[in-house]
Specification:
The complex is a heterotrimer. Chain A is α/β, with parallel strands linked by helices. Chain A folds into two domains: 189 residues, P-loop containing nucleotide triphosphate hydrolases (Rossmann fold), CATH 3.40.50; 77 residues, no CATH class. Chain A contains eleven helices and twelve strands. In chain A, helix 4 packs parallel to helix 7. Chain A is globular, with a radius of gyration of 20 Å. The model of chain B has no long low-confidence stretch (mean pLDDT 80). Chain B has one domain. Chain C is an all-alpha fold. Chain C has a domain of 245 residues. Chain C contains 15 helices and four strands. In chain C, the strands form two sheets. In chain C, strands 1-4 form a two-stranded antiparallel ribbon. Chain C has a two-stranded antiparallel ribbon with strand order 2-3. In chain C, a hairpin with a 2-residue loop joins strand 2 and strand 3. The relative contact order of chain C is 0.16. Classes of the chains: A alpha/beta, B mainly alpha, C mainly alpha. Chains A and C meet through helix 3, helix 4, helix 5 and helix 6 of A and helix 1, helix 7, helix 8, helix 9 and helix 10 of C. Chain B: It is found in: Cell membrane. Chain B: It holds the Pfam family BPD_transp_2. Chain B: Keywords: Amino-acid transport, Cell membrane, Membrane, Transmembrane, Transmembrane helix, Transport. Chain B: This is Branched-chain amino acid ABC transporter permease.
Chain lengths: 288, 328, 358
């Protein structure tokens, strides 16, 4: 263990003195905080999208972020993936303060995500789309790729094997070679999840993975999310509107409204929080 | 004051006038971009086409005479009459409206919802088509265009400045007219878009296609209208350029300079097009004036583009454009 | 039953990813290659070589280059002509400065020089997109051509401002200069085309190609899932310019023999190559071949028909040609944005299933 790692661990232990490693009733191991958002404030010109929000995400948990439209949930996800840079506040990742990073550097650090409006590469096949998830793991030089000899071809086959496992896992073998543009909505969502999973992320960010799905598709997707978390222990952060889904899936929930955090805790607790009920049922904001 | 300073000022003023010309072409781009989100590469060729048509009508040329002669072995070329300028201009305008209609019917209608870059490449195709069509209709030789605008150095300005500064400024009367006409055009367009029903519809479409459709504005009618107006602007630009340097193919290349003008001014701003045009016009003349001894002449070929490129690196949204917040 | 695929099973991932997954296609490819290399030279006249096949092969390379940039990485460049000029003038300077340098290396080095220039003008692509970038590449086009016509060092102070290719040989056979025969030049270019097309195919099926396509299809998402836009875009500009530079070097050294920048590498060349890519098919290696064939051989046939057979004046025929090309671009963008290649692909999918509809 290097000195910096040791210090990181120490910091981590200090920060999370109250949050020891524990096991959930269904037998999943939840660790200390892997990602911490500290006093994040994000502004677009005069508009404040996120106002002084802090919360943490523990290793191995399923963390949900909920809130009405325009609450700043997606902006928060964009801050985590390094697409937006907050004006104030810090992001701590694996016990270290994260420097200002470009999105691709964040991805390289093991954070993968899906998007609210599907962001698949429409001009490519399902297989190629999922293979892009492996880009950060592929090392062959441009020259080796150009002659397609030895290392490049070997690497391609190795990663194809990994991708095939994800394809099996998400049950999309039959559409492997189909151009993404031809797929129906529900399958596109699944391919997007596959692309994120192919990256073997430490943290998986899901931006409304079930929006616009029918009940059956939602059930499938819920099963996949749980299975991923269960089998690979992937930490999952989830934005979702369907309260039933959120309550069933998540270990802890952050509630946002108008860019502010109004609740944080286990689903049952959040459900009974007066501020949350007000936000969802609509109470005038003048007296809030 | 040393004579060099007067030279520089004179160069700058003449650059302003060239800038007005660029701005005129850029104006056509902005109109179409605002209404349909299309970057119309063919705007310059439209100016050429309009000028060719105007000369053709004015001098009574038979359209497609070369083609007809080649196919049927005839030897026709002119009807043998000269149309009054104003009739020829109206006739040309009719042709430009017809063109707008055809473009909408045959091209735009089929490319709705395509990516901007595909639409852009389509307008490059359109530019080629129009260029070929113009040549086939009216012949490719250089033509004189005379619509009765005064030309040559303004004696009055020369005399006045000589009396005041002891230096005889050379300023082309045509350039002054061009500036005046451009100003009238911009004011006219602004009034049109602010105070007429069609103008409001135009702005609505520019703002949000879907919303405009939902309140009952016909997108297709608006497109025909904008392309017609752009055709009219092209005609004005064509007349100006044609009167100053003859109607010839190089006109469409000069018009390409409107592209860097747009980058400076932003794609959606009419004042931006004017200011951008003036900056480019003055900038390239002065650059050439000062650097010709060092790097050799003809820097006008690339100065505008280089300026735009450097500018883009620092302010991708243009002088007057708003900063775009990207979303996922 | 033109395609008989039954029993052609893929057992490894490598076999599944090969260029021609269908056995029939592999045979057709090798046959075409053997025909081009062994049979065509037998009846190749100098006129046929220099008027048709050599320009065709050279423009295939240029179209491949632009297709890598535009069709795969989604970055539109209107500077192709300028970059071809860089290749041509680099080749000229190399040939005159190092007379002993083998012509193959001259061409490759000229490509590398162009790649460096391409990266330089590709830098703005990191901040600007779409037609903004297209306008920025116009700066490359006009500046480079101006540079090569104005700075005498580039044309070795020749009084005409032209550059002329001295004679160079390969295995004792002259490849450049007035004594080069059509057959040897044709084979020389064919060699380049085969190797470069093969490299392009490999690049586009690997991880680099995927990162290009990801940038093309949705650049923001691509960056968020881990594509480094700097690396993807600049590598696309570099490799694309390498191809375009080689095309320019070949056009000057073996096809034209003498050139002047503003005439041989004007903006019309940029458009010509762009049109080849559009007509052939964006994002397709085969498309570069089809597009170049269409726009090199088509006009020659048209001219034969209009001028030689119907007796039209040459300039009228040229104008009609411009019109037809413009119309074709519109027709293709409207009816089949993926070009002739897509038509071929649809046909092939039907043939693979024929005679059964499903």
């Amino acid at each position: 263990m290097s000195i910096s790692d040791a210090r990181a661990l120490q910091v981590q232990q200090m920060e999370s003195a109250d949050a020891d490693i524990f096991t959930t009733p269904d037998g999943r191991r939840i660790g200390g905080p892997i990602l911490e958002m500290r006093n994040i404030t994000l502004r677009f010109g005069g508009v404040v999208a996120i106002k002084d929000i802090s919360f943490d995400i523990r290793e191995g948990e399923i963390r949900a972020i909920i809130g009405p439209n325009g609450a700043g949930k997606s902006s928060m996800l964009n801050v985590i993936s390094g697409f937006y840079h907050p004006q104030e506040g810090e992001v701590w990742y694996r016990g270290m303060r994260r420097a200002r990073m470009r999105p691709y550097e964040v991805a390289r650090e093991g954070i993968a995500r899906t998007f609210q409006n599907i962001a698949l590469f429409e001009g490519m096949s399902v297989l190629d789309n999922i293979m892009t998830g492996r880009l950060n793991h592929m090392k062959a030089s441009i020259l080796a790729q150009a002659v397609w000899w030895g290392p490049a071809a070997r690497e391609e086959a190795e990663h194809r094997e990994k991708v095939e496992k994800v394809i099996d896992f998400l049950e999309i073998q039959h559409i492997r070679k189909t151009p993404v543009a031809r797929l129906p909505y529900g399958l596109k969502k699944r391919v997007e999840l596959a692309r994120a999973l192919a990256a073997e992320p430490k943290i998986l960010l899901l931006d409304e993975p079930m929006a616009g799905m029918n009940v059956e598709e939602k059930e499938d997707m819920s099963r996949f999310i749980l299975d991923v978390n269960d089998e690979f222990g992937t930490t999952t952060v989830l934005i979702e509107h369907d309260m039933g889904v959120v309550m069933d899936l998540s270990d802890r929930v952050v509630v946002m409204d108008y860019g502010k955090k109004i609740g944080d805790g286990p689903p049952e607790e959040v459900r009974n929080n007066q501020a949350v009920i007000d936000a969802y049922l609509g109470v005038s904001h003048d007296d809030a | 004051m040393p004579i060099e300073v007067f030279f520089a000022i004179e160069v700058a003023i003449n650059g302003l006038m060239a800038g007005v010309m660029y701005a005129l072409v850029a104006l056509g781009f902005v109109l179409i971009f605002k209404a349909s989100g299309i970057f119309n590469f063919a705007q310059g060729v439209m100016a050429l086409f309009a000028a060719l048509t105007l000369v053709g009508l004015q001098t009574g040329q038979i359209p497609f005479a070369h083609l007809i002669n080649a196919i049927f072995g005839t030897r026709m070329h002119h009807f043998g009459w000269d149309l009054p300028t104003i009739v020829a201009i109206i006739g040309t305008m009719a042709v430009m409206v017809l063109l707008a209609f055809l473009v909408e019917r045959l091209v735009l209608k089929h490319l709705v919802n395509q990516e901007p870059i595909i639409l852009f490449m389509a307008t490059i195709g359109l530019a080629y088509l129009l260029e070929g069509l113009g040549d086939v209709m009216w012949g490719a030789e250089v033509k004189q265009l005379d619509v009765g605008l005064p030309q040559g150095a303004s004696v009055w300005i020369g005399d006045t400045t000589y009396a005041l500064f002891g230096y005889d400024f050379f300023i082309d009367k045509l350039a002054l007219w061009a500036a005046g006409i451009a100003a009238v055009l911009v004011i006219g367009l602004t009034l049109f878009s602010q105070y007429t029903r069609q103008g409001r519809a135009l702005r609505a479409v520019a703002d949000d296609h879907q919303a405009a459709l939902s309140v009952g504005i016909s997108l297709r009618a608006i497109w025909v209208l904008t392309w017609s107006i752009a055709g009219f602007v092209a005609l004005v630009a064509g007349i100006m350029w044609g009167a100053s340097s003859g109607v010839q193919f190089s006109l469409s290349l000069i018009a390409l300079k409107a592209l860097p003008v747009l980058i400076l001014g932003g794609f959606t701003s009419i004042p931006g097009a004017i200011v951008g045009g003036l900056i480019i016009g003055v900038g390239e003349k002065l650059f050439d004036f000062f650097f010709q001894p060092i790097v050799g002449g003809a820097t006008e070929n690339w100065f505008a583009y280089m300026l735009a490129l450097v500018f883009l690196l620092f302010r991708p949204q243009g002088l007057f454009g708003e900063k775009i917040i990207e979303r996922v | 039953m033109i395609y008989r695929e039954a029993g052609d099973y893929k057992l490894t991932y490598g076999a599944d990813a090969q260029t021609f997954p269908i056995k029939g296609d592999r045979w057709a490819y090798w046959l075409a290659l053997a025909f081009a290399a062994a049979v065509v030279p037998l009846f190749l006249t100098d006129y046929l070589a220099f008027a048709l096949l050599v320009p065709f092969l050279i423009y295939v390379i240029a179209a491949l280059g632009l297709n890598l940039l535009l069709g795969y990485c989604g970055q539109l460049s209107l500077g192709t002509g300028g970059f071809m000029a860089v290749g041509a003038y680099a080749a000229f300077k190399l040939m005159t400065a190092f007379p002993g340098l083998n012509i193959v290396f001259v061409i490759i080095l000229a490509g590398l020089v162009t790649a460096a220039v391409g990266v330089l003008f590709g830098l703005p692509s990191l901040r600007i997109k779409g037609f903004y970038l297209a306008v920025a590449t116009l700066a490359a086009q006009f500046f480079l051509v101006w540079l090569f016509t104005r700075a005498p060092w580039f044309f070795n102070y020749s009084p005409t401002g032209m550059i002329t290719a001295p004679t160079r040989t390969l295995f004792g056979v002259p490849i450049t200069g007035p004594s080069a025969s059509g057959v040897s030049v044709y084979l020389f270019c064919l060699g380049f085309v085969v190797v470069l097309a093969w490299l392009a195919r490999n690049l586009t099926r690997g991880s680099l190609g995927r990162s290009w396509m990801a940038i093309r299809d949705m650049d923001i998402a691509a960056e968020i899932i881990g594509v480094n836009p700097l690396r993807a875009k600049l590598s696309a500009f570099a490799i694309s310019s390498f191809y375009v530079g080689i095309a320019g070097a070949l056009l000057f050294t073996v096809a034209l023999g003498a050139a002047e920048a503003s005439e041989a590498f004007g903006i019309d060349k940029s458009f010509l190559v762009l049109f080849m890519v559009i007509i052939g098919g964006l994002g397709s290696i085969l498309g570069a071949f089809i597009g170049a064939a269409f726009l090199i051989i088509g006009p020659v046939l048209l001219k034969l028909l209009l001028v030689n057979n119907l007796g039209w004046p040459t300039d009228l025929a040229a104008h009609v040609e411009v019109m037809i090309i413009g119309t074709l671009i519109l027709v293709f963008l409207i009816a089949e944005p993926h070009g002739l290649t897509a038509l071929w692909r649809t046909l092939k999918e039907k043939l693979r299933l024929w005679p059964f509809p499903y």
